[in-house]
Amino acid sequence: MKIAYHDIYAHPLPADHRFPMVKYELIPAQLLREGVISHEQLFAPEAAAEEVILATHTLPWWEKLRDQTLSDKEQRHIGFRQSPLLTQREIVIARGTIDIALHALDHGLGFNVAGGTHHAFADRGEGFCLLNDFAITANYLLHQKKVKKVLIADLDVHQGNGTAALFAGNDQVFTFSMHGAHNYPFHKETSDLDIPLPDGMTDGPYLQLLGEALPRLIEKVKPDIVCYLSGVDVLETDRFGKLNVTAAGCQQRDEIVFSLLHRHGIPCAVAMGGGYSTRISDIVNAHCNTFKTGLNIYGF
Predict the structure, then answer these.
(1) Among 21, 32, 142, 291, which one has the highest count of C-beta atoms within 10 angstroms of its own C-beta?
(2) pLDDT at position 5, please?
(3) 82: phi > 0 → left, psi -120 to 50 → alpha, else beta; which?
(4) Residue 10 has pLDDT above 90, yes or no
(5) What was the pLDDT predicted at 206?
(6) Distance (Å, rounded) from C-alpha 36 to C-alpha 23?
(7) In what helix (H) or strand (E) does residue 187 lie, and over which residues does it extend?
(8) Max intra-chain CA distance, the chain
(9) Which long-range contacts (CB under 8 A, 24 or more apart) does 28-32 make?
(10) What 3-state DSSP class applies to 40?
(11) What gap in Å lies between CA 116 and CA 229, rounded to an integer?
């Protein structure tokens, strides 16, 4: 089992970057401390090549990121001030997600400690996302003829609007997003399947919806790989999530996904997505439960 991690996450960052980033240091540290993973399972991805990025994103957008020429408005939409380190981090994340997807094709399961940058469009960034790592990965796997069909299962509380737009009309990539109906982004794109959720949804109805929808999708799409965005901003403790899913319910969600895919022999590439609970321990514990659940079900 290989897990994409790079110490670029731990480098000094501007103060307004720190809170969303600190979990990427704490997740592997906790998994190592608990003996869930070993240091040998962590690997440092290289940066994604320019031609790989340009198979998904436009040249003008890539040049703005590369050359640090984003406008003030573009930076506001992203939610971060531009910096070379931030751009480099996203390039590394993109390559890490490619690498763990390739690993999943060979071994069943792969994790990126970061990733899930689903608000990035071909020509712009939004919502803390500059480059869309699952979109870059899906295009890479298809162009390299590693797979014929990809299912992106996005269970972050926010709709994967960038992902939906990038693959609109593409019959090789099926986009599924189960998200808060009244949450960001307030203008939704159209995924191949959207399941909007009312505010305050609890474990039972949430898990029932997922448990009914996902098996039907697997039967319909017959994917060669599933890219699973396992955001923990569905938690009741999340500052922005608006749902009332408990930590136990979030772990049951992961069990539903991993059990179904393992039973069908479908490789799964996992990226962490969002999590904005006030207590960082709530975020880290929930993400670590995703690792533990997947590793246990896939037999690692």
Answers:
(1) 291
(2) 84
(3) beta
(4) no
(5) 98
(6) 17
(7) none
(8) 48
(9) 28/3, 28/113, 30/284, 30/285, 30/288, 31/288, 31/291
(10) helix
(11) 6
Tokens of 44: 């440092």
pLDDT of residue 7: 62
- Per-residue confidence band for 48, with pLDDT thresholds at 50, 70 and 90: very high
> pTM of the predicted model, to two decimals?
0.95
**Domains assigned to the chain:** 3-297 (3.40.800.20)
Q: In 45-123, which ranges are E strands?
A: 109-112
Burial environment of residue 283 by CB neighbours within 10 A (0 to 12, 13 to 18, 19 or more) = buried
Query: Which of 187, 189, 185, 186 is closest to 167 using CA atoms?
Result: 189
SS3 179: strand
pLDDT at residue number 98? 98
**Cβ–Cβ contacts within 10 Å for residue 261, how many?**
26
- What is the four-CA torsion angle of 146, 136, 192, 114, rounded to 10 degrees? 110
Identify the pLDDT of residue 8.
Answer: 52
